[in-house]
Amino acid sequence: QVQLVESGGGLVQAGGSLRLSCAASGRTFSSYAMGWFRQAPGKEREFVAAISWSGASTYYTDSVKGRFTISRDNTKNTVYLQMNSLKPEDTAVYYCNADPPPLGSWGQGTQVTVSS
């Protein structure tokens, strides 16, 4: 079983920042590569960022490179997404999961809304 709870979303003006958190339980957290994904209304869920089990390797989709930073603290079983220079097109529900995500494993996500 995988238990993941996202938090930290909210309403922010364009150019602002948010820090998302994902708390994990029910497994050995440090054994998994983790990722953030997002889904905007009317669109498919898309990959945003990933981080290796050790935290030494990260990967970002092109649209967020230079603006978002993924990190993890295995002692706290938590993965983070620092989002800077936010744009209205970043508006979506953000989800965390193992990377690659197991089938049917999605949680409630956290809503990020960026106003112009």
User: Got a strand count?
Assistant: 10
Beta-strand portion reads over 45%
Q: Would you tell me the overall average pLDDT?
A: 93
- Helix and strand element order: EEEEEEEEEE
Amount of helix = under 10%
Structural class estimated from helices and strands = mainly beta
Q: What's the overall geometry?
A: globular
Strand order of the largest sheet: 2-10-9-4-5-6
What Rg, in angstroms, do the CA atoms define? 13 Å
Low-confidence stretches: none
Largest sheet: 6 strands, mixed
Quote the distance from N terminus to C terminus: 40 Å
Tally of individual helices: 0
Structure in a nutshell:
This protein is 0% helix and 49% strand.
Secondary-structure map:
Elements: E1 3-7, E2 10-13, E3 18-25, E4 34-39, E5 46-51, E6 58-60, E7 68-73, E8 78-83, E9 92-98, E10 110-115
Parallel strand pairs: 2-10
Antiparallel strand pairs: 1-3, 3-8, 4-5, 4-9, 5-6, 7-8, 9-10
Describe this protein's structure.
There is one protein chain. With 116 residues, the protein is mainly beta. The protein contains no helices and 10 strands. It has strands at residues 3-7, 10-13, 18-25, 34-39, 46-51, 58-60, 68-73, 78-83, 92-98, 110-115. It has a 6-stranded mixed β-sheet with strand order 2-10-9-4-5-6, with no helix packed on it. It has a 4-stranded antiparallel β-sheet with strand order 1-3-8-7, with no helix packed on it. The protein is globular, with a radius of gyration of 13 Å. It starts with a strand and ends with a strand. The model has no long low-confidence stretch (mean pLDDT 93).
